[in-house]
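User: quick one - fold this with LQZAQKY5 bound?
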Amino acid sequence: MSLLPVAEAQSRLMALATPLPTEHLAVPACAGRWLTEDVVALRDQPWADLSAMDGYAVRAAEWPGPWQVAAESTAGGPPPPLLEPGQACRIFTGAPLPQGADSILIQENAARQGDVLRGLDEALATGRHVRPAGSDFRKGGLLLKAGGALGPAQIALAVLGGHAALPVSRRARVALLSTGNELVPPGMPTQPGQLPSSNAPMLAAMLSGLSCDVVDLGIVRDDLPGTVRAFVRASEADIILSTGGASVGDHDFVRPAFVQAGGSLDFWKIRMRPGKPLMAGILGSAVFLGLPGNPVSAFVTATLFLLPLVRHMMGAASPLPPTAPATLAAPLPATGERDDYLRAFRTEAGIVSVTSQDSAATAALAMADCLILRPAGSAPAAAGDPVTVLPLA
Ligand SMILES: Nc1nc2c(c(=O)[nH]1)N[C@H]1C(S)=C(S)[C@@H](COP(=O)(O)OP(=O)(O)OC[C@H]3O[C@@H](n4cnc5c(N)ncnc54)[C@H](O)[C@@H]3O)O[C@H]1N2
Ligand code: MOO
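Assistant: Sure. C-alpha cells for the protein plus LQZAQKY5:
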C-alpha cells in the first residue's frame, strides 16, 4: 500500500463522517459549538440613535450654542421630548437622542450655569458621539453563518440579536481504546517492561476544548479476540479512537480486529512523519480512527486528523487547523520521503525545533508550542528562511 498524502487522507476522513443531528440550546450553553443554520437578527442594534458619551444632545447643525438645557434622557428611561433648535438635552451613555438632536457635546467640553450651556471647544461636528440606529446590525440581517464557531463574541452577538436559543450539532461521543500488553493505568506502579498509559489522558485533554463526550474504554491487550470485542463495545460511539497496534508487527492487531468486528477500512499509512501507520474506516455508524502508539505520533496525528474530524462532525465549516507563516531561528536538515511535522517553539528570534524529533520523545513534545510543516523532499533550510507553522495553542 503506497503512502497517502496528508491532505488527501484528511478529505477522505471527513468524507467518512455524517454530520451529527441538530439540537437547540440556550445561547450561553452554545459556547464552543458550531451553528448548523444561519442566524439572522431579530432586532435592530442600536434600537434607536443613542449617545456614545455622557453630556448634552443638541441640534449642532442649526445652532452653534449657547443652549438652554430643557430635558434629560437616560438609558432605560422614558423617551425624551422633541428638541428645538437652541435647546439641549442632558444625556447619558446609551440613552436615546431626542428627536431633532444630531450631536453630543461631551460634558468635559461644556460649561453649564443653571440651565445655560456653552461649548468650550470649537464648533461641534454633526453626528459627533452618536451611534445611529441599526449601525451595528439591522433586524433581518445575517448575524452568523452556519458552520461558524460560537465563541464569546458570537454568543454576545446572538444574545443582542434577540435569540434565546441557537441550532447547534449535538456533542460528539468519542470512545478511546489504548492497546498494548505493556500498558498499566495512569498512576499505577510499573514492573519492568511496563509503562503508564499516557495516550488516553493526552487525547482526552486535546478533546476537552471541543464540547465532546469522551469515554475511555481502557487498556486492550494485544490479542485478536479481545481487540475485536473492544471494537464491538466502542461501536456505540460516533468516533472510535484507538492508539497503538497500528503498525506491521506480529502483535499489531488493530487493523485485523477492526475488520473482523465488521469494520470497513478506508485507508492505512500516511506520507507523514511522525504518524505513518494512521488508519481510518467505518464501523456501523461510527468513524474509526486508529492512531499510532508512540505518544508523539498520536499527538501529531490527533492534531491533524482527530480534532478536525470532531469539528467537522459537529458542523465546523473550516475544521482543519490554521497555519501561519514564520521565520526559522536555526537551520533544519533536508526532509525525506514523508512530510515532516517537526515539534518546535516560537522565540523572538524565530522558530526553533525541539532537541529530539523522536516520535517517543514526550519531554521534547512538552516543550513545543507549534509544529513546523516541511513537505517531503524539502532541501536543508537556513536560519532566516520562511517556514509554515501550525500553532498548537
Ligand atoms: N518494521 C516496521 N516497524 C515499524 C514501522 C514500520 O513501518 N515498519 N512503523 C513505525 C512507526 S512510524 C510507528 S509510529 C510505530 C507505531 O506503531 P504502533 O502503532 O503499532 O504502536 P505500538 O507498537 O503499539 O507502540 C509504539 C510505542 O508507543 C508506546 N505506546 C503505545 N501505546 C501507548 C500508550 N497508550 N501510552 C504510552 N505509550 C504507548 C509503546 O509502548 C511503544 O513504545 O511503529 C514503528 N514500527
Ligand atoms: O511515523 Mo512514526 O509516527 O515516525 O514514529
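One thing worth noting: Helices lie at 6-16, 152-160, 199-207, 224-234, 254-260, 295-313, 362-365.
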